[in-house]
Specification:
Keywords: Membrane, Transmembrane, Transmembrane helix. With 114 residues, the protein is mainly alpha-helical. It is built from 3 helices and no strands. Helix content is 46%, strand content 0%. The model has no long low-confidence stretch (mean pLDDT 82).
Length: 114
C-alpha cells in the first residue's frame, strides 16, 4: 500500500499561516511590537483631558498599569485556584468510557498491513 497522506487544505493553510511562530526572531519581533504598542498607547494618555471620579485616575498611565497588574493577579489567582479544585487524573476513571472493558471483537481494530 502506498503512503499517501491526505491533508485538509484548510488545515494546511492554517499551519502555513502560523509557521512564523516557529521562528524565534519573529516571536521576539512580535513581543517587542506589543511592548512598543503598549508604550505608545500609554504615552497617548498625556494627550487628552480625563474626566475622573477618583484622584488616582489622574496619575499618568494609571489604566495601563492597573490593567497589567490586574491581569497578572488574575493569572496568579488562577494558579492558586487550580491547586484548590484540581482532581487527580484517575478521578473519573472508574466511570470513564475508556476504562470500560470491551470484547476484542467489538473494537473493530484493523491490522496495520491492511
Amino acid at each position: 500500500m502506498s503512503d499517501k497522506r491526505t491533508t485538509n487544505p484548510i488545515s494546511a493553510a492554517i499551519v502555513r499561516s502560523l509557521a512564523w511562530v516557529d521562528n524565534r526572531k519573529s516571536v521576539d519581533r512580535f513581543f517587542w511590537g506589543l511592548v512598543a504598542g503598549g508604550a505608545v498607547l500609554t504615552l497617548l494618555d498625556l494627550l487628552y483631558k480625563k474626566k475622573s471620579y477618583f484622584s488616582i485616575e489622574n496619575i499618568f498611565g494609571f489604566y495601563a498599569f492597573y490593567g497589567f497588574f490586574m491581569c497578572a493577579a488574575l493569572v496568579v489567582c488562577a494558579k492558586a485556584m487550580r491547586r484548590l479544585v484540581m482532581r487527580s487524573e484517575a478521578y473519573y476513571a472508574p466511570h470513564d468510557v475508556e476504562s470500560e472493558a470491551h470484547p476484542e471483537a467489538d473494537l473493530d481494530r484493523r491490522q496495520a498491513d491492511e
